[in-house]
Each structure stands twice: as structure tokens, then as C-alpha cells.
């Protein structure tokens, strides 16, 4: 089987949350928060490499590896509970953002309302997962997302951006209490916790041979290319929104997100943007519940395949919760931003799980984490925890 997992992971994190969060960051902060995005891209490469290595070498997903790499039954049960709570609940929040983003795009085309479109999209995602024939559709939607990225790049060049100003802002990083939610959102939209479980499970299903070292090298190269491209897309969206909105009297809202494409697409900008964010949303609305099902089934040692009834129950629950939250009347941009921030807060828990597995799993042998991977993983955890504590202390004072 040819490995395309790196591009699946990149497509999974380029969802409506990425487009919306990057647009809001560029419009409100310019390039001052680029440091958070660049850090997230590098951290994603390192963490996804760990997850992929686990799947390739052991043939197990992250949840399986975690619960089976600890000797104490009590600790195994505790970790299983935390995985079910963190990934199951976290993906439900993430799913609401995916459905809200996709519904936002469709509402711009046919104004039926965000709630109605969320229900329709939830049903579509459920049907696709139930039949198992979602891969071709997902590939088409990913293609639309990449096409949208090209238009963003062309738009940015035609808009005559001030590259000197971008560089000045990039080298003048900002961190403040008002910007923390946006920082968490940028991190959460890039280092997506469920992608770690998804990547490990996908790699575990690939036919492996005895040459694990070469397979790891090949996988690492592809992941770096794919994730790097995904990061570039996000950076271009930030730059485009900055050029269109930052420092101007125009305020970015749910209704004018597509205005940043007007220099190239004119009156068709909103339509194209709507199709793109719908494509991104539906793609992510499929992968989020799928990853939750892999994680929960792995933690509970249940069969992780599309035909299993319990597996279906997990992804269906995530979709239903996502539909309910997306239909509850929250402001679209606020719901998407909240989902991304929630993932940023969830990340330290998942990263700790991953580090534990990569240092203790008996099946990894010589492919256990080396010092460099442990240092980067620890820095990621420390940064997210520090930001969270800073926000809590600031709010309490």
C-alpha cells in the first residue's frame, strides 16, 4: 500500500478552523503572532513523526500503545479513561467547529441557516463514514482546499503586500492576555491532537517489512513536505487577511471572510471562498470522528475497523454532539475559534501520552525516542502549559 498518510494529516488540519483562525490572526494582529504558527509547524512535524514511527514499528495505534506499554492495570485503566475523555470530548468540540465552518460556507451560497446546514452536513458525514466510500469524496474535497490555497497565494501577490512590514512584525512577536486565545487557536489548528492518533493508526495498517529504518525515513520525508505545505497554506492565509484587513477600517466578520479574495476573483470571491471552506469543513468533519473512533477503540481494546458496531457508535456520537453544538446558535466565528483554542489546551495531555509511549513501549526497541525528540516534545508541552497558566493568573489578578 502506498503511504499517503502525511498528506491526509495535512488535509485534516487545513479545515475551516485553520482558514478562519488564520484570517482572524492576520486581520487583527498582522504578522505579530507568526511565531506561534512557525513553532506549531515544527512541533507538528516532530510529534507526527513520533506517532507515525509508533504505528510503523509496532503495528499499533497511539491509544493501543499507551494502554499496553504500562505494566500496572490501574494505570492502564486511568490512561484509557483519559483518552476516551480527552479525545472523545475534544473531537466533539472540534467537530462542531468543522460543521460550523462548512455550514458557514454553504449558508453564503444558499441561506438556509447555519443550524439547518449543520444538520445536513452531519448527516452527510455520517452516511459517508457508514458506507466507507468516503475516500474518493475526501480526495476531491482536499483538492478544492489546495486549489483555494493557490488562489490565496495569487491574491496575495496581486494585492501588493508590504513585505517589509510583514518582516518587521514577524521579528516583533507579540504575547499578551488579549492575544492568548488567538495564540492557542493558532497552535490548536496546526498541532491537532487527534491527528496524532489518526497518523499512528493509519501507519499501523500499512504493510511493513523488516527494514523499519528506511520506512521511517521515507515517512518522515513525506510528512515534512506535506505538513510544511500545510503550514505554508496557513501562512499565506494570514498574509492575505493582513493585507486586506489589518490597519484598515474594515472589520473581519463571518459575512466578509471572502473579501480577501476580491483582488483576483472580484464579485465571485465570496462564492469561491464559500466552496473552499465547505470543502475544508466536510473533509475535517469526516476525519475528526474517524480519529476519535480509532482512539477510543484502541484505548478500550475493541476492534478498530469501519464494520464494527462499537466503532460506528463512537464516530456517530462525535458527529451528533458536533451537530447539536453547531446548531445551538453560537456565533459562527466564535464557535470555530473556541474549538481551535480547546484543541490547543488539549494538546499537552495528548503530547504527554505520546512521550510516555515513545519512551516505554517494549515493541519500539531501537526506534524509541532519542534525546532531540524528547526535548522538542517537552518544549511543546512546557510552552502550552505556560501559556495556559499565564492566562489563568492574569484572569485571576
TrEMBL record:
<feature type="transmembrane region" description="Helical">
    <location>
        <begin position="226"/>
        <end position="248"/>
    </location>
</feature>
<keyword id="KW-0812">Transmembrane</keyword>
<keyword id="KW-0813">Transport</keyword>
<keyword id="KW-0769">Symport</keyword>
<feature type="transmembrane region" description="Helical">
    <location>
        <begin position="106"/>
        <end position="129"/>
    </location>
</feature>
<feature type="transmembrane region" description="Helical">
    <location>
        <begin position="141"/>
        <end position="159"/>
    </location>
</feature>
<feature type="transmembrane region" description="Helical">
    <location>
        <begin position="268"/>
        <end position="297"/>
    </location>
</feature>
<feature type="transmembrane region" description="Helical">
    <location>
        <begin position="78"/>
        <end position="94"/>
    </location>
</feature>
<feature type="transmembrane region" description="Helical">
    <location>
        <begin position="33"/>
        <end position="57"/>
    </location>
</feature>
<feature type="transmembrane region" description="Helical">
    <location>
        <begin position="7"/>
        <end position="27"/>
    </location>
</feature>
<dbReference type="Pfam" id="PF01566">
    <property type="entry name" value="Nramp"/>
</dbReference>
<keyword id="KW-0472">Membrane</keyword>
<keyword id="KW-1133">Transmembrane helix</keyword>
<feature type="transmembrane region" description="Helical">
    <location>
        <begin position="371"/>
        <end position="393"/>
    </location>
</feature>
<feature type="transmembrane region" description="Helical">
    <location>
        <begin position="179"/>
        <end position="198"/>
    </location>
</feature>
<dbReference type="InterPro" id="IPR001046">
    <property type="entry name" value="NRAMP_fam"/>
</dbReference>
<protein>
    <submittedName>
        <fullName>Nramp family divalent metal transporter</fullName>
    </submittedName>
</protein>
<feature type="transmembrane region" description="Helical">
    <location>
        <begin position="309"/>
        <end position="330"/>
    </location>
</feature>
<feature type="transmembrane region" description="Helical">
    <location>
        <begin position="336"/>
        <end position="359"/>
    </location>
</feature>
